[in-house]
Specification:
By secondary structure, the protein is of the alpha/beta class. Helix content is 31%, strand content 26%. The protein has three domains: 205 residues, Rossmann fold (3-Layer(aba) Sandwich), CATH 3.40.50; 175 residues, Rossmann fold (3-Layer(aba) Sandwich), CATH 3.40.50; 91 residues, 2-Layer Sandwich (GMP Synthetase, Chain A, domain 3), CATH 3.30.300.30. The chain is globular, with a radius of gyration of 23 Å.
């Protein structure tokens, strides 16, 4: 039985040593190169840290990033990715939560790491590769490995103003990658076109599926998505066959008329996730690429990227709403009503997930872990852990799961799961702000901020947020109020704000 993700790399590097596994605009790395360089990083870390310790990776989107991830895994530790485009404020919140002793980065970003005021050791990739491979140290760490060992911590938005670190195990990722590859018949002939930032959960498919199958991943520069015609040309040039993108990226290609300029020559699998895919956009893709496979995915970070899927087997109607489908192998779905009983077909219930896909919890956050990871109330025979997603769903007549929105103020926006409370917490900390409320317009996929503060204005708030939040969390619509509306019992009148939001 496989117990460690690196077993993928060991097998594929033996089968395809000279084949490219990762490439970006400037560099391409073969399986054997990745294995050898990752072992050097792992050896370097083995002599400087104990097993199962967090190692922060501060990096850009390049082939060096998965190289650093794999190096950390060789050392028997787990990685915490931080993109260099994150605001310094958010980087520091993550560092405070993780309490790591080591940051790994490349030579270009050493100064960025030093500017964070980090008290531990900062090592560059070049420094890590300056020492030889120590097979004895690596083997010792591998002999001690468990499939339940942590593999990574990826941070999501948190309702209290602090991001939550989702910690995932090797077992969860192995089962997910195996199920994904088997379900969709992925082989060494596939070439993935990576869209997601490498510190985002969706990127695990682009990083680990090639290691499993012998395929290759092309890292697409972020700038390409502002010019979809050039993006399509890039996909053709690099013979990309498979894309696993957030729905908003696919929609943008349609909105900017990419298909009128370029024909995609090699893409034959289109997976989409992150938010509801409007069928009016999907239909354009289907008409342009009628022979491609189209698959809708659903799942939060807490269950290893996606837990259900729906294969679109027909030309969609523009007004159609796609189901989120059926669970992957070794994954179970429950729909629980407010009273803890199971929802019947057609009834709404909270989507709850069980199986090896579940995260180990939230790093250094036992309270939130206990809230979201609970014992299955339907199983009174033994303790069976489930994850409460906070999403509402219903099973249709065909036995397919349908998504029906959020129970709370956590939303999906631009492929990211966001706690509106985190945005509010940041804005409320601004001296000029008396009060605020953040809402999400689902139809228009827009974040709205209502605020009270005589000396505050849209520009000053935007500047303040840009220093503290990633771009996808900054509301583009801001409304200044004299006072927040209240209902008869003095509580915030959300319905009044929602009505104002809908009116535009």
């Amino acid at each position: 039985m496989q117990i460690h993700v690196l077993e993928y790399l060991e097998r594929s590097s033996a089968l395809y040593p000279d084949k490219i596994v990762y490439q970006d605009e400037h560099t391409a790395l073969t399986f054997s190169q990745v294995k050898q360089r990752a072992k050097k990083i792992g050896s370097f870390l083995c002599s400087r840290t104990a097993k199962n310790q967090p190692i922060v990776i501060l990096s850009e989107k390049s082939v060096e990033t998965p190289l650093l991830y794999l190096g950390v895994l060789y050392s028997g530790c787990f990685y915490v990715p931080i993109g260099t485009d994150l605001p310094k404020f958010r980087m520091n919140l993550i560092l405070q939560t993780v309490q790591a002793d080591i940051i790994l980065t490349d030579s270009k970003n050493v100064k960025t790491a030093e500017a964070l005021g980090f008290q531990g050791q900062i090592y560059s990739l070049e420094e890590c590769e300056s020492e030889p491979v120590r097979e004895d140290l690596l083997q010792k760490r591998m002999d001690q490995a468990l499939d339940t060992d942590p593999m990574y911590v990826i941070f999501t938005s948190g309702s209290t103003g602090k991001p939550k670190g989702v910690i995932e195990s090797h077992r969860a990722v192995i089962d997910y990658i195996d199920a994904f590859a088997q379900t969709f018949h992925l082989t060494q002939d596939d070439r993935f076109g990576n869209q997601a930032p490498l510190d985002y959960i969706a990127a695990i498919r682009d990083i680990y599926l090639p290691l499993k199958t012998g395929a290759s991943t092309v890292l697409i520069p972020k700038k390409m998505f502002s010019f979809p015609v050039k993006l399509f040309e890039y996909l053709n040039e690099n013979r990309v066959t498979t894309i696993c993108w957030v729905a908003s990226a696919l929609c943008l290609c349609v909105e900017l008329h990419a298909f009128s300029g370029v024909t995609l020559e090699t893409v034959n699998k289109v997976f989409f996730t992150g938010s509801i895919m409007p069928c009016k956009y999907l239909r354009v893709w289907q008409q342009a690429l009628p022979n491609a496979l189209y698959v809708n995915h659903y799942g939060p970070t807490e269950i290893t990227a996606s837990c259900t899927y729906y294969v679109v087997d027909h030309l969609v109607d523009p007004e159609e709403v796609l189901p989120i489908g059926i669970p992957f192998r070794n994954t179970g779905i429950l729909l629980l009503k407010e009273d803890g009983t199971e929802a019947k077909n057609g009834e709404y219930g909270e989507i709850c997930v069980k199986g090896t896909c579940l995260a180990l919890g939230y790093y250094h956050n036992p309270e939130k872990t206990r809230e979201s990871f609970v014992c299955n109330p339907l199983n009174t025979a033994y303790a069976e852990l489930i994850y409460k997603t906070g999403d509402l769903g219903a099973m249709n007549a065909e036995g397919l799961l349908e998504f029906h929105g959020r129970k709370d103020f956590q939303i999906k926006h631009m492929g990211h799961r966001i706690e509106l409370g985190e945005i509010e917490g940041i804005v409320r900390a601004m001296p000029e702000i008396r009060d605020c409320c953040c809402l999400y317009h689902e139809e228009k996929e827009q974040l709205w901020l209502f605020f009270v503060g005589e000396k505050a204005d849209n520009r000053s708030i935007t500047i303040y947020m840009r220093e503290r939040l990633p771009g996808f969390m900054i509301p583009r619509n801001m409304v200044k109020l004299d006072a927040m509306p209240t209902n008869f019992n003095g509580k915030l009148d959300l319905e009044a704000l929602k009505a104002q939001m809908r009116q535009g």
